[in-house]
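FAQ: What does a ligand-bound record look like?

Like this one, built around iron/sulfur cluster:
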Amino acid sequence: MMQERHILGISGGRDSAALAVYMRQHRPELPIEYFFTDTGKELPEVYTFLDRLEGFLGKPIKRLNPDRDFDFWLDEYGNFLPSPRTRWCTRQLKLRPLEHWIKPALEAGTIIHSYVAIRSDEPTREGYQATHENMLVHLPLREAGIDRAGVIELLQQADVGEPEYYSWRSRSGCTFCFFQQKIEWVRLAAHHPDEFEKAIAYEKTALEGGSPFTWSQGESLTELIEPKRVEAIELDYERRVARLKKRRPKNPLAAETDDTIDDIYGVDEAAGGCVICHK
Ligand code: SF4
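The answer part, i.e. the structure of the complex:
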């Protein structure tokens, strides 16, 4: 008889958590295997949130650990920090562990249903592409017409809430992710000064090793965290928030949602992020 498995990747962000809640509520009969690929460079808030979500799901979220850690790959890539152009982090620390985990089953002929958290308000986003004919990708949130406000509502009603880092950062993902906006680096320094120091140390090693990339485009973290520069970044951020609020048409029927840093900087989620890391 043909075997089937059902998997759902939890990123530590709100969309994949909402998808897990949705599947638990609407398809409780499916033996879904929840997994989280742990890069070893996650924010502590991510683990707290995973614990809360496990409580709701009533089953563990499997942690997939890479066989080699961030430091190994950094060395392997000649100390070049990952960047949008050389995004070795996603490939080696997120996709590789997932592929190792499911490859034997796929090759043995098992059909794997993978549930991916793409919302209905992300029409251009495709998500994780199936790389094997036995892998079938499903997008339940999009099919059910659930948008960002719907995701937030699902999490609130299930009493799972949101990861605490959303109060200062817009996305899930590694502590040092290069997709962070400058204001988020400033906030990382405020919320997790030790982690910020580690990011500086990685960057120094990279620059000394000849890497052309800094974590944040155009300047090193040491420059970014100079008081005058911090002041300018914060001011720029506040101005953008004010501009966005002025531009946004008032809709009395729409639920109030907080502006995210992505809204404020006009980041195209499809281009700026990745369903593997950020959903
Ligand atoms: S969250 Fe950022 S740094 Fe981490 S794997 Fe994804 S792209 Fe790379």
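Follow-up question: can I read anything off the structure? Yes, for example: Residues 39, 82, 87, 89-90, 93-94, 173-174, 177-179, 274, 277 surround iron/sulfur cluster (CB under 6 Å).
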